[in-house]
């Protein structure tokens, strides 16, 4: 089997995560985070649609990591993003981080809004 090293060019991969933190492109961020190919920073959680909505026209899909376990996002959150043309995919945060990295390596127009794992 041939292994190929994944490269992200100048994009921001999610390097790792742990209880209450994410490491994105070498930077440790505590709490909930919003990660895009070009930036990463704090996110206000499921009540905060402003951060994801600021990405309209720059992303097609937002992966929402719900922490350790998968759960439903509030209807108002999903509706606001979908009305603006951003698809919402909900999963637990570890799966969202992995999926984000895979699609990031393919050059897809994605972002991740992640709640920390416990």
Question: How are the SSEs placed, and which strands pair?
Answer:
Elements: E1 14-18, E2 21-24, E3 27-30, E4 33-35, E5 40-42, H1 50-53, E6 61-66, H2 75-83, E7 87-91, H3 93-105, E8 110-115
Parallel strand pairs: 6-7, 6-8
Antiparallel strand pairs: 1-2, 2-3, 4-5, 4-8
By helix and strand content, what is the structural category?
A: alpha/beta
Uncertain segments: none
- What gross morphology would you assign? globular
Strands of the widest sheet, in order across it, are 5-4-8-6-7
Number of strands: 8
> Radius of gyration, rounded?
13 Å
What does this molecule look like?
- The strands form two sheets. This protein has a five-stranded mixed beta sheet with strand order 5-4-8-6-7. A three-stranded antiparallel beta sheet has the order 1-2-3, with helices on one face.
- The protein has helices at residues 50-53, 75-83, 93-105, and strands spanning 14-18, 21-24, 27-30, 33-35, 40-42, 61-66, 87-91, 110-115.
- The chain has a single domain (14-115), classed as MTH938-like (Hypothetical Protein Mth938, Chain: A).
- The protein has 118 residues and is α/β, with parallel strands linked by helices.
- It starts with 13 loop residues before the first strand and ends with a strand.
- A hairpin with a 2-residue loop joins strand 1 and strand 2 (21-24).
- It is 22% helix and 31% strand.
- The model has no long low-confidence stretch (mean pLDDT 94).
- It is built from three helices and eight strands.
Brief sketch in words of this structure:
The protein is α/β, with parallel strands linked by helices.
